[in-house]
Amino acid sequence: MKKSDLCRNPAAARNQASPLHVAIIMDGNGRWATARSLPRIAGHRRGAIAVRRTVEAAPKLGIGTLTLYAFSSDNWQRPASEVSALMQLFHEYLRKETEECARNGIRINVIGRRDRFSPALLEDIEYAEKHTAHGSTLHLRLAVDYSARDAIMRAAQLFKPEGEPTREEFRRMMSKAIHSPVCPDVDLLIRTGGEQRLSDFLLWETAYAELYFTSRMWPDFEEADLAAAVQAFYARERRFGTILEAAAG
Ligand code: IPE
Ligand code: IPE
Ligand code: MG
After folding, report:
1. Where residue 100 sits, what CATH number does that domain have?
2. In this structure, which ligand is nearest to the CA of 32?
3. Cα 80 to ligand 3 centroid, rounded to whole Å
4. pLDDT at position 17
5. Does residue 146's CB lie within 6 angstroms of at least one atom of ligand 2?
6. 216 in a structural domain
7. SS (H, E, C) the chain
8. 8 to 22, 103, 188: CA distances (angstroms)
9. What is the pTM of this model?
10. At 7, is the pLDDT very low, low, confident or very high (cuts 50, 70, 90)?
11. Do the domain assignments include residue 246?
């Protein structure tokens, strides 16, 4: 089946053979904790468990690339205690999960800036990426110290086209700027926690993404929620600026 058929025919899209790229803005950890009279970091800890659940569920749902927004460049502005707890949690996650990811064919990749991490964290990021590089079941991209606007600016600095500039070349620079291999565009963007905004996440890669907002707080996000979002995606009609053949008459 041709890719153009997948775009034009929603029934065909439901049988889409290519794995999905799903991106998630994992929001609501703080409110989850506050609602239970717990410190915000307790919400982040539960959030890390939800990450594990989601990573496990993703391949079963036809997801080939999963990009998770874990820490934005603007999140450095939070109180120092929350920032250091988040960095510690991220570091713990990498230490605990790298071996299992390697066993399960999950390729880990950390996207964003790298010049503000501690040397020890940086070392573990590089180890995780190298050690899981062969994984082909799922490409897991963790966005940490990530800002889409900064990524676009860095890509623009790297972009030196010899002839007519192409989107493909710019896409390569975008990937380079965030230390990622070149990936397909985002098919489905999910945001938990009830807000309906992008908060500087993947502004270039989501040009034609389907958006899905849920009031579920991230620590409560389950496999069934991910399945519901994927199901909603397949019920949508993606047109990419064109019109359906039937409508064209
Ligand atoms: C998302 O949850 C995690 C990070 C931004 C690190 P929040 O911490 O933003 O939770 P809320 O939005 O305050 O509930
Ligand atoms: C976006 O959430 C960043 C992450 C989920 C990591 P925020 O909670 O930081 O976003 P705003 O401040 O509500 O826009
Ligand atoms: Mg938030």
Report:
1. 3.40.1180.10
2. 1
3. 16
4. 65
5. no
6. yes
7. CCHHHHHHCHHHHHCCCCCEEEEEECCCHHHHHHCCCCCHHHHHHHHHHHHHHHHHHHHHHCEEEEEEEEEEHHHHHCCHHHHHHHHHHHHHHHHHHHHHHHHCCEEEEEECCCCCCCHHHHHHHHHHHHHCCCCCCEEEEEEEEECHHHHHHHHHHHCCCCCCCCHHHHHHHHHHHCCCCCCCCCCEEEECCCCCCCCCCCCCCCCCCEEEECCCCHHHCCHHHHHHHHHHHHHCCCCCCCCCHHHHC
8. 20, 38, 17
9. 0.94
10. very low
11. no
Q: Domain residues for 127?
A: 3-232
| pLDDT over 90 at 71, yes or no | yes
210-213, strands of its sheet edge to edge: 106-111, 138-146, 63-72, 20-25, 188-191, 210-213
Supply the residue whose CA is at minimum distance from atom 11 of ligand 2. Answer: 199
The answer on pLDDT for 248 being more than 90 is: no
Decide if 243 is inside a domain. no
Count of domains in the chain? 1
The pLDDT value given to residue 212: 98
Alpha carbon of 130 to ligand 1 centroid (Å): 29
pLDDT in tens, 11-38: 444 445 699 999 999 999 999 999 999 9
Please report whether residue 70 resides in a domain.
yes
